[in-house]
Amino acid sequence: MSTRLVVNADDYGRTAGVSRGIRHAHRHGIVTSTTAMLNMPRVTEDLSLAVQETPALGLGVHLVLTSGRPLLPPEQVPSLVNEQGVFHSLVAFVERRSSLKLAEVQAEWQAQVEKFIAATGRRPTHLDAHHHASYLAEGLFYTMLELAQAYGAAIRLPASLESADSLAGLPSDMLEPAQEYSQRLLAEFQPRRPGAFFATFYDEGATQAELLRILDRIEGLDLAAEIMCHPGYADPELLSGSAYARQRQNELEILTDPALRAAIEQRGIQLVSFANL
Q1: Which of helix, strand or coil describes residue 126?
Q2: Dist CA 106 CA 226 (whole Å)
Q3: How many helices (DSSP H) and strands (DSSP E) are in the chain?
């Protein structure tokens, strides 16, 4: 049996401090992969640094519809933005998800992937979505799967081992329909993806004990699992614009503890990126 583990840091490019922290967590810790927010102001520069400084770090795209501004002009994606030309907040996005124009979603997400390719000179190792937006409606998931197929990318699958029928991180009222259409569309597209996903290493749950619990849960299983994380340095830009700021430094400290890598090696778990799936 071979247990493989992807440790993916979300939000690369969110700020310079977040990106620097993710690179540090890869060089000195257990982070193997990251996904970039291509609509952030300095993401192109940060991706160039990743290619130069951390060539073994898996680089993917964190598809965005709920933070910042779109890459495309607002008049080209009117169903995705508010009157200020900014993406809707997550709460508003969920309320409006049935009125989103999927052609606009596809165009904006494709623009994000193409910007990634232009910045790195490579295709993304995988696609996931900020706030799990790609799982919040069947059409959104279908659109992400189409993009993944077109670019040969793997995807994040938020399927939890904690419960046989759960999707980690999704609002409770969306779980039942998401279970139905996710299984149907996965059978249709058959994307590369891990077999398990853990979203519990976050905020108050971001502890070494939680990571050790996950390692014990997957030890000896013949599968690939993903742990989602959010390390980073709380720079002034992040502190002024995000409620999840200093918590990222706590994650960074834990993810770079040498004892954690030793625990992974003791359990015979192989650290990989999405490129290895």
Answers
A1: strand
A2: 26
A3: 10, 8
Q: Please say whether the beta carbons of 13 and 40 come within 8 A.
A: yes
φ, ψ dihedrals at 154, nearest 5°: -75, 175
**SS3 state of residue 36:** strand
DSSP letters spanning 44-81: HHHHHHHHHH-TTSEEEEEE-SSSS--SS-GGGSGGGB
Burial of 103 (0-12, 13-18, 19+ CB in 10 A): exposed
Q: CA 207, CA 200: separation in Å to the nearest integer?
A: 10
Residues paired with residue 62 on neighbouring β-strands, in sequence order: 128
Reported as a single tens digit per residue, the pLDDT across 13-64 is 999 999 999 999 999 999 999 999 999 999 999 999 999 999 999 999 999 9
pTM: 0.94
- Tokens 């169903």 found at: 79
Cα 230 from Cα 21, distance rounded (Å): 9
Report the alpha-carbon distance of residue 118 to residue 110 in Å, rounded: 12
CATH class of 4-276: alpha beta
Structural tokens at position 110? 């494709």
